[in-house]
Amino acid sequence: MPTRREFLKIAGVGLGSLLVGVGAGYYLGSLGSSPTTVTTAPTTPKPPETYSLSILGRDAEHHDINTAVIDFFTRENTNFKIEYSPLSYASLYDKMVLALQQGSAAYDLIYMDDPWLPQFGERGWLTDLEALAKETGVQLDLGDFPGVLIDVGRSPYKTGKIVALPQMGNVQIFAYRKDVFDKLGLPEPATWTDVLNACEKIKASGLVEYPVAFRGVKGNPVATAFQPILYAFGGKILSDDLKKSALDSKAVEALEFLLQLKKYAPPGVENFNTPDVRDRLVGGRIAMSTETWPGWIKDADNPALSKVPGLLAYTTTPGERTKPSPLLGVWYWGIPAASQNKAAALRFILYSISARMQKIMAILKGLPPVRISVGEDKELAGLRRWIPIQVKSLNVAVPRPRTPLWPKIEDIFGSYVNQVLAGVIKPGDAVSAMSAEIDKVLSS
Description:
Strand order of the largest sheet: 2-1-3-11-6
CATH architecture of the largest domain: 3-Layer(aba) Sandwich
Largest sheet: 5 strands, mixed
Radius of gyration: 23 Å
Structural class: alpha/beta
Oligomer: single chain
Number of helices: 19
Shape: globular
CATH class of the largest domain: Alpha Beta
CATH topology of the largest domain: D-Maltodextrin-Binding Protein, domain 2
């Protein structure tokens, strides 16, 4: 188990070698001198064109990461001035919709959660990035991204033009206490049945306070936590044509499984949100977190911030009847159709999502990268052990149903799953009721 001094030393060595390799001394305030060129006659260089970009983006860790990228970019491109306006999730969505609806040119770049893309893309609010790249003589190299990330950035999904490019590779992974599993001779969970069996043995051992925890509060949290279980049992929420509910007996079975899992979770799990699960995981109070987002564990190996440094192991969310199906939560850059600085905005996007900057931000800020090559980087894997699994999970991840009506459907779905957890309604009745309400939304 590394000490805090050892952790910082390891991180320092990794970061130092990276910064030397990429010339990121800019970030540390050392601009250095530019190389000189000998010419046959003195000339007066033409001053570079100046650009001002305005970004509407998310607060919290997103703000921390994106402003660090901006700092790198503006130090290396001194003719750029960039303003970043951070907002909370709900406020960001509301302001973004208003600005895009009005055709406002106030923002040159927007930072979007992937469920918003069907709405924004279908309404023509976003710039065609492929056409823009061609117009400006830029080559888009998309081969280093998991295919699903590019598919999600297209409008329509999979088949249309690219209107968004991925920046933060949020995806669900499964976290567990390897020391506890090793002591009990338990295999790494490959199925949800494995998880339930492990819960029983861990509870009997008394090695940790509770075997498992997950988010249960109604709405988005429990809807998000439950979907990989539903998909693994072969269920789905909507039909392939997105015109009706597809919830059936498989959803009932998945809900019944969730109730079995609840027996091994802390009391009141139906009211748990992110801090309740995250703090128990890095605080050493649970042995498994059924859904774990990269932001929850970015400092899990830092003994100054975690009670389980070096003890957590990571894998993809388990399968059952079908393959593992972790849920995507990727954030994307897009350019409003009304922006007056599209070429400059594209230049910033490509800088931000470059392999070089993705690696720097993964080390400095715990960014979950979106590039396959960064996920395979051995130096980075030594500093952020969860990254190889996170990028691997992107390759098998499932996006939320690609319909502009998803927010309303998610509210219905998440409300009934919460009621099942709370014992208010039985799984079969919940599936019937939510199916009827979802069909009503889709037919309106």
